[in-house]
Amino acid sequence: MRDLAAKVSLQLNQVVEMVVAILMVALVLDVWLGVVDRYFFHWQLPWPEVLARYLMIWSAMLAVSSGIARREHIGLTAFIAKLLASMRHICLILIDLLALALFVYLFWYGLDFAQGGSSRVAMIFGASLLPFYAAIPVASLLCVLQLCLVLIRDLGSHLDEALPSSDEVAS
């Protein structure tokens, strides 16, 4: 079960990272176009700045699930590192469950947020804001999935390699 969770987490993360990379390329090109427009051609395009904002939001929100999959988010481990391995595993599992509850909450209320965007229109694009506001529930759902997968994969043992063993501490 743990190997399957690790495999699914890795594959999901690869897809998310590919999407984030594409969004970042689009963001760079969009900002570049805005700079070229402003300083060289003076086309006065109204949309590059707005598009850049939404591309950045989508990129940042999707990248959160990648950080979860890789266990690369900032963690305050000074207290946890002093615990016995069994207590440390329980504490880390509880932290994952709290994070899971947070992202379920964000997903649930993000659906209403995105639905509210469906009735609003971006004047510059002349389109609904739903695709832009959907970043919150989509990213939250990805975080929920990744947290479930890494929770199964690690079972609170993800700090074991990073921390010295009790034998090393005693010497």
Q: What fraction, in percent, of the residue positions are helical?
A: over 70%
Give the overall shape, derived from the CA principal axes.
elongated
How many DSSP helices? 7
Q: What integer is the average pLDDT?
A: 87
Rg over C-alpha atoms, rounded to the nearest angstrom: 21 Å
- The total beta strand count reads 2
Main structural class: mainly alpha
Assembly status: single chain
Give the biggest beta sheet.
2 strands, antiparallel
Strand order of the largest sheet: 1-2
What low-confidence regions span 5 or more consecutive residues with pLDDT below 50? Answer: 167-171
Question: β content, as a range?
Answer: under 5%
Distance between the termini: 37 Å
Sequence of secondary-structure elements: HHHHEEHHH
Task: Please provide a written account of the structure.
This protein has helices at 2-41, 48-70, 78-81, 85-118, 130-133, 135-154, 166-170; strands at residues 121-122, 127-128. With 171 residues, the chain is mostly helical. A two-stranded antiparallel sheet has the order 1-2. Strand 1 (121-122) and strand 2 form a beta hairpin. Helix 1 packs antiparallel against helix 6 and helix 4 runs antiparallel to helix 6. The two termini are 37 Å apart. Residues 167-171 have low confidence and may be disordered.
Tags for this entry?
elongated; mainly alpha; 2 strands; 171 residues; two-stranded antiparallel sheet; 7 helices
